[in-house]
Design a protein that fits this description.
- There is one protein chain.
- The protein is built from one helix and 16 strands.
- The protein has one helix spanning 2-27, and strands spanning 49-53, 58-62, 71-75, 80-90, 93-103, 108-120, 124-131, 134-143, 154-157, 164-167, 172-176, 180-188, 191-200, 209-220, 223-231, 236-242.
- A hairpin with a 2-residue loop joins strand 7 and strand 8 (134-143).
- The chain starts with a helix and ends with a strand.
Length: 244
Amino acid sequence: MKKALIVSTFCTSLLLGCGHESSEVEDYFPPDVPVPKPEPEPEPFTGNSVYFNEQDFVITVVDSERETHPIVVGDFSANEILLTHTGEFEGNLAKTKGITQVSNTGDYLVNDTIAVTGEVSENGIYIYGDVNDQMVAYSLAKVSDSMNLASLVGTHTNLVDGTTWRIAIDGSFEINGSCIVNGTLRYNRYYFNVLGAEASNCADDSFNGAYEGMMTTVTYQSDVYLSGIIFNDTAVMWSTAVKQ
């Protein structure tokens, strides 16, 4: 009996010891450690669209999903083009960095640091920036998406310089003006990408070569205008035509 009692006491001590250790773990409260708050999700950009200033015949395509040239401004009245290089987009604000600015007078500016900002409102966008100590600004209204490819099949003409656009049902096109430009139009949600464009027989042969770009349509004084801009690393070309 005594031996049994000793064994029982030993086992009881072990059990108490285990219980005591367990109690210490349960009663231990580590010091408060701040839990970092997750970064808020960026607001989706609200400004992807086609924009048009009828008074000055300025057309702009904004596409935050483009890695390069997310904002392209075509001032077809003044014959000036502004291409932004890259951008950050959130909510109603676009912040771009780097521009290519070209005019038909031969001005050609490429700068990788100039910033251009776009502020989106309910009805349009205001684009502005300081370019070589001169404020550049465009106020444009949001307009309808470009017409689809099937609506543009045929031949269209620029009534000022006689340039013709021929568009086929498969998206292939030929523009015949100061150059002959062949390529393919591919609809991208609300405008067209210009793919695999090739310029040849240019009046100035320095413009011969491969290009990419974009095209859209806008309605102006009851006419539908096709407006396209193509570019590469050394040149930019643009044209419009009235839909027939």
